[in-house]
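Supplementary Text 2. Reproducibility record for the structural model of the 597-residue chain.

All settings were left at their defaults, and a single model was retained for analysis rather than an ensemble. We include the record here because the model underlies the residue-level annotations in Supplementary Table 4.
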Amino acid sequence: MKELIRKDVDITAMTTFGIPVKARYFAEYSSLAELQAIMRTPEYQQNEALHIGGGSNLLFVNNFDGIVLHSRIKGIKEYRKNDDTIYIIAGAGEKWSDLVDYCVGRGYAGMENMAGIPGEAGASAIQNVGAYGVEAKDVIFSVECYDRLSHRVVRFTNDECKFAYRDSIFKHEARGRYFVLRVSYRLTPSPIASTLEYGPLRSLGDTLGHRPTLREVRDEVIRLRDSKLPDPSVIGSAGSFFKNPVMPRRYFEKTVAPLWPEEIPHYDLPGDMVKVPAGWLIEHAGLKGKRIGGAEVYPKQCLVIANTGNASAASVTGLCDLIRKTVHSRFRILLHPEVNFIDTSVHIEVLGSGTSRGVPEPACPCDVCTSSDPKDKRLRASVLVRTHGLNILIDASPDLRTQLIRSQITDIDATLITHQHYDHVGGLDDLRAFCLDKDMPLYASAAVAADLRKRLDYAFRPHPYPGVPVFDVHEIGDHTFYIDGLAVTPIAVKHASLPILGFRIGRFAYITDAKTIEESELEKLTGLDVLIVNALRFEPHFSHFDVQEALALIERVKPRQAWLTHICHDMGRHEDVAPRLPENVHLAYDGLKILIP
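Retained model, structure tokens:
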């Protein structure tokens, strides 16, 4: 297997950003048999796996502590069904621009508007790449993949891919589960271009004096791209860094449009939605040419963050954050990156560490409730996890509004719910600020989802009142699921007799309100760097771990560090209790930030 897997490999050249990065392991394969052989190795089975294509949509925030895979499955085959349809089947490792040139050269219409897009054929299905009025979904017929769970080859039809703007099933529930092997495209044999309705291509026919050919459109698209976008071989970038924001027309007209003295450019979409050019927003927020370190808002196209030669991942992410905050402040639109942030580190922020009553309790004169120590001020329990470019909220406590403002949280990509008790879901309504341009993905057990549909019925009606939070509910069990490629493992525990869930993300696990855990679930907690677990107080409780029970669990699973949460005032003052705990066990407190590198 030495010929397939290498260790400590510099993969900088395999990304278009050109920011130095290494992979702990790197493997390339040219066939399904080689892929399967790689998947049987300990290097694959004992590490996080990341599959990359041309590296045109990736930002490695740090070196990748796992195995990076890359397809070298090549080959282009043609099948003609009749005089009106041609099918092209391309290996996932085929360079996209070469594939487009192949089709244009043979007179197969449909891809010419997407000429010059960096990347590989496999990524066209994952990213639903597009340009100048055409998207990959318009020509993709089917996608052949290898299923990592069932260990078999499967095929997705165009409909099953759930294509949307720069989106597909492979970026959400199917992300990380499937490796694309080949993509089949359905094209039309014709020397004449098929789509000329977008922007500069509208006048191309008038300029030429005839209906443009495929080659003429291809050449014009390349010219337009070269005039706006940097050549990755000269100036590193990931192309379009942000998605063009899509929002309800009502929000655009009532909130966004009045913020600019002239008409803000926008495009009508089905479902009474509106798309606004992100590049225009960035430029008119005064950010053209803005730099942080070696990262720059590219002056010719503000949608691009360019590496001027010495950019670091930190300077790019810093500039990304500045752009998002500035545009949001100016236009009340939160931009979402199109680039995938590859970051195996886990950042944890404890938003609340208290029990259902919080600390201090109202009208309580005890030493803890009257303490002036900030670590004795405990809002109801919730945490925010940042990793892989995602912000994941675990539980929405009734104090969520205060927590969001205090921690200056401006974006949440998904919410995980441990159980339906009010002190863990009472703040769901405060998520309405994050539902303006998307339905908030909400992950919960079937029983919890049913309870929330009743409790928050106004948010689940077919035509909800404008402004209420709207949720995209995913019912989960006790098996690993994926959020935009991020693996999340539920941990089944009991809160007295009530089944609830904890969650593991990478080398971090969060458990609250637990009283018992089955032996089989303990296996999910091996190899942790950080465990946050509930410990109500020193005295026993019928439905919560007390301190001794929490310490016993910690001793069983042996995380490097453990933090106790869901604490009531009976625990005692932080400064008195902390010294009594084992060396690797600590009391959590509101605002605590933990980093797993």
